[in-house]
Amino acid sequence: MLLKSVQDPDIVLKRFQSTLSEGSATVSTNGKDRNTETSKQNGAESIQQNIREGTESTAKAEDIVKTKAELKTLRDLLKDTQALLEAKEHMVLQAKQEVLTYLAEVENVRGRTKRDTESVKHHAVETFATELLDVVDNLSRIAETIPESFLTDSLANDTSGNAKLLKSLHDGITMTHKQLMKIFGRFEVQKYDPIGEKYDDQKHLAITEVEDDTRDPHTVVNVVKSGYFFKDKLIRVAEVDIVKKRAEEAK
Q: What are the boundaries of the region Disordered (predicted)?
């Protein structure tokens, strides 16, 4: 029976065909399985790649956001710094202006103090000199009352010693007068004798009018009491005699 079936070509051919079909089916199934696994692996790798790329994109986005935040912080810090610098600059300028104002005020006070001091000094010297003018006039009159010739003659014929005492008194008065005039000169107090000047009611006080055809009318011909200047200020007018106006001119 076995020998018969082996020897039967139809049976052998059928079995061979069946074997080939089974082998082809097996090969086809194995190929499909391998392709499926490969596709799965490729899909997994693609998903992992996408995940990695998404993670990197997220990290980059976070970095960008962080960088923008840092830039905003830096801008705000720069803005605050500039505002602080402007405020400090304003404070410096204000302080400088205050210092300049203070220095100007100090200089003004110094100038006013100097002027006030000079004014007080000026007034004090003027008042003191004015009070001494009559004393100087009296000393001058006393010295002029006793002529030098009288003193000389008296000393030559003096037997009692009185002439010598009178001479000593005269010399003392003269020296005192000269010393006072020297002090006046030191403080710029100057005697004013306007002989020969034209009469000026701002500087002269006419006491009498005299006849004098050799001089122009209203010319000062004699000083009764000397005037005095303190620097450029007249502190006492001069009492004078002036030439009387001629009759023909009066007409």
A: 22-56
